[in-house]
Every structure is written in C-alpha cells, then in structure tokens.
Description:
Layout: H1 6-18, H2 23-36, E1 40-42, E2 55-60, E3 64-69, E4 77-83, E5 88-97, E6 101-109, E7 122-131, E8 136-142, E9 176-179, H3 185-194, E10 201-210, E11 215-217, E12 223-226, H4 229-244, E13 251-257, H5 274-283, H6 286-294, E14 297-301, E15 304-305, E16 327-331, H7 341-353, E17 358-362, H8 374-377, E18 384-389, E19 391-393, E20 400-403, H9 406-419, E21 422-425, E22 428-431
Parallel strand pairs: 1-2, 4-13, 4-14, 14-18, 15-19, 16-17
Antiparallel strand pairs: 2-3, 3-13, 5-6, 5-10, 6-9, 7-8, 7-10, 11-12, 12-20, 16-18, 19-20, 21-22
Helix pairs in contact: 2-4, 4-9, 5-6
Amino acid sequence: MREYDHAALSERLLSFIEKSPSSFHAVENLKKMLEDKGYVQLLENAAWTLEEGKGYYVTRNGSSIIAFRYKKDFSGFGISASHSDYPCFKIKDRGELNGEFIRLNTEKYGGMICSTWLDRPLSVAGRVIVAGEDQVCVKLLNFDRDLFMIPSVAIHMNKAANDGMKYNPAVDTVPLLGEKNCKGRFTELVAKELDVREEDILGTDLYVYSRQKGCVWGCDGQYISSRALDDLQCAFSSMMGFLEAGEGACLPVCAVFDNEEVGSSTRQGAASTFLHDVLFRICKTEENYLMALASSFLLSCDNAHAVHPNHPEYADPENRVYVNGGVVLKFNAGQKYTTDGISEAYVKYLCRKNAIPFQSYANRSDMAGGSTLGNIAVTKVSVCSADVGIPQWAMHSAYESAGIRDTACMIELCRALFEGCFKMKNEGYDVG
C-alpha cells in the first residue's frame, strides 16, 4: 500500500464534505474533481461518441453521477458504487409553520439519531427550480450561515429526558426560524439568496443540514468527525481511487447514487436503470453487454459499524471491526450485504496483493442490521459483488466519527479494483 499523509488527506475529505451539504452539491463537487482531470460530460438525451482513452461522466437528476474511462477492448467492468445522500430533514412544499413562532415545516429523510440534531446551529441547502423567459433553470442553494435551531426541552419540564426519549417529528424536531413577525420570510430569504423573484420559484428540494464543521481529534489526532461520513467518505475515496488508477484489464466505472437512505427506488437511485443504461451504451449491443457483465465486479462502498468504545457488546464476538483497522468486508446470510465466497476471495486477493489492511464484519446474530445499495444494484445489473466500507461510530448521527487512516485504505482498494482483472472462465475466474 502506498504511503499517505493521513492528516492532509483527512483535511481534504472534510473540505469536500463541508462543500457538499446536499446530494446536489456533492455531485457538483465530484464533477469538479473529474473535470479537473479532463473528463467530459455526456448527456442522456444526446448521442454518445466515445473515444479511446478518454474519460467521461453522466449525471441524472443532478444528484447521481457515473464516471468511466473508455476503451474498446476490455475484459469486463470494474465498478464502485456509493451514495451521495445522508439522513436529515427535508423541507415540505409549504415550508413554514406559523404561530407565535415561525418554524420550518419538515419531515424526516432517512433514519437519523434525532437527539443529535438538537441544540446545534442548522442551515438549509439543496436546489431551487426557477422560471426564466422561455425555460426553467435549476439553481443550487446553500445558506452558508447559522439560520435555525431545534431547542431541547429543559430537563425541569421533561424529567424523563435522560431515561429514553421517543421523538415525534411533527413536534420535537421542528427547526425554529424566528418570531411571528418572520412570517413569510423563508421564501423571501431563498429568493434573496438566489437573486430571483419569489413568484419565479416553481419548485424546491431543500434539506436541513448541521453547520458543525468537521475536525480531527484524539490524543494523537487519530480520529475525524463530520456530518455525512456515511457515505460521503466512501464517495470521496472511491472517486479518488478511480482518478488515481492506472490502466487495467477492466473498464473502470465509478458510480455515486442518490436516495440510498430512503430505499434507492427513484430514477436516480441504485434501483433505477441508470447504471444499466450507461453500461449498455458503452457496450452498444445486447450480446457485448451480457458478455461484459459475466466478467464484471462491483464494490458496494458504504460505511460500516465499528466496535463502540462504551458498548462492545453490540458487536459480533468474532466478526467485529475497529476504527483505523482498515477497509471492512461485510457479510450477511440474508444477502443484505452481497458478499459471497467468490467475491470475498477476490476482495481479499486485492487487499493482500496491495498490502491493504482489511477486516470482516457481520451483525450480531440476534440483532438485525441495515442494508445498502449493493443488493439493490445487482438486481438491475447482475454482476459479482461484495459489500465493503470504512469503519465508523455513530452512524446516522448529525455528527459521525471515524478513523484518520481508513480513508486511504478505501482509496487503495478502489484503485486496485480499477487496475485489476476479474474474468469468468469455464472452471473459475482469472484475476489480476
């Protein structure tokens, strides 16, 4: 494995996350990473002319992106897949709750740890669709300032606050904007921020995000904390591995999907035709496409649960992983994680060949775990697949924590995938 300045890499990761308060901003920043390396955008509604050795990317909905480097002769696809979204609060169409106080009218997006959103500065980011003279246009919005707060109820009024709290999203987690004289101000603020007229705002996809900046901490500076480590840490590191990879036998593909936290069943999610459509257009014919899939491999990259310092009992007795212990290979008998014996062997082969530290994770047998996009994506694009991730604490908190050294391990694994070869043969597979 190559040597890394882990502190510098972590600062670069935290900067990426800071500039990506919504999935739309995350994809915009991934586009910039690609364009800085000469990648060219392709449009889904236009014909594609692909040139040998050139890099391309395609977006859908402004919140999902697929990048690839084209070549005519390849054994199959080497694919990484991660996601751009994270649990937060989405602002409803009629975005204000009026009364003595003006509050945001929100609903939960994904499964967050609600208590972590209280008593910290919040803001809003996303996209706004605005009417022009003869068309509508999309504008990205980020109120880059402290704008809201969700105050806790004082313990004097809620004696059970430390005994377990059930949060009602219609009551307990509603962000405060201002006093009653602020009625109607939210739309006004949006229009002013974008320098448009209020009446020209036709639609919005706006989300509340935490303003707390990421940091490096610990006795030896060995930990990082930030919002959205799940899964922007994997989105960032898989893209880094993609951009740094040399030539291999496969055609490299880096995919970042939206809406994983709400099931992926959208036109831009892993359950959509997006990945299929891009791969098919690369292959051009059904026969070429099916032959390529038979020798393709997908890494589903999504963060994993590390052993908690205060609650090690929640981890499996043997298949437990640790922060700063390396990339995580995830297993589940019910195939919520797609790893099987073949894909396990290939990931371990890549890790050993490149001296990448790796760990094995499985849920405790009496505790149901989550799932990710891998087992959804392969129902649309049937390839051999493994679920991998970066170990972290406090998954789905407004402020998550991970290790300073594990980002580099994921970069190296993705780089090894894109430089490698996974080719079906009559009695097994060629790897390289």
